[in-house]
Amino acid sequence: MPRVQLPATTPKRRAWNKGRIIGQKRPLLPKQVWAIRARLELAGYLRDLTLFSVAIDSKLRGCDLVKLAVSDLVKDDRVRERVSVIQSKTKRPVQFELTENTRETVLDWVKSPEMFACRFMFPSRFHDRPHISTRQYARLLRDWVTAIGLEPSGYGTHSLRRTKAAEIYRKTGNLRAVQLLLGHTKVDSTVRYLGVEHRRCFEYRRAYRHLKYFGEWPCRSPFQIRRSLTPHCPTLNPNQ
User: Fold this and answer.
1) Which position has the higher pLDDT, 90 or 208?
2) Per-residue pLDDT tens for 64-105?
3) Any idea which fold 30-163 has?
4) What residue segments make up the domains of the chain, in order of their start?
5) Calpha distance 165→221 (Å, rounded)
6) What pTM value is reported for the model?
7) Helix axes 30-43, 134-147, angle to 10 degrees
């Protein structure tokens, strides 16, 4: 059968991921969080400061964050310490706590003239939209990370969702607690979300640097190897 040479075709639309860094976005470090907060405070951007602070404390997805209503956070002229919202993705409730600094910022924003007769915490400037969109939220985040000298392509809205969760896991190693805070239905999703397995592989590699040859391993089974590496890598917990 003769081989037919088809003419080359040129795609009409450019691929959405061409020239972009895709994949999981990294969380912010504590010093980066405080740097962004300080810049927003000095600039007097009360709405952006409130949005950033609530995003860090709540660990909500962008679609749930922009839909927060004033009644979700404020009751009787007082900001709630613990808030419960229904997630759009899983349709399940998730709870979070607001720190004292965040509660003060929220109260100042709610009492500002821009929030007069507004139902949502972050209203849109367009009359046909009740609140800001997730795209606008992403643009604001890009400006924040660029202002402190970070590469915006390496960070996204999920960076703020992962920031406090990654810090809690780094200090406690409790995956179940992080799962509840993030509102994941399965712990496997939390493992992939935090990149736990990749992090442990790097820790194994760093702990292995003190051994030159495989014959110097003090034991053979994987469990014993993990126990033997613990003194060299304290973050490894054999009970996890």
Assistant:
1) 90
2) 999 999 999 999 889 999 999 999 988 989 999 999 999 999
3) hpI Integrase; Chain A (1.10.443)
4) 30-163, 195-240
5) 32
6) 0.74
7) 100
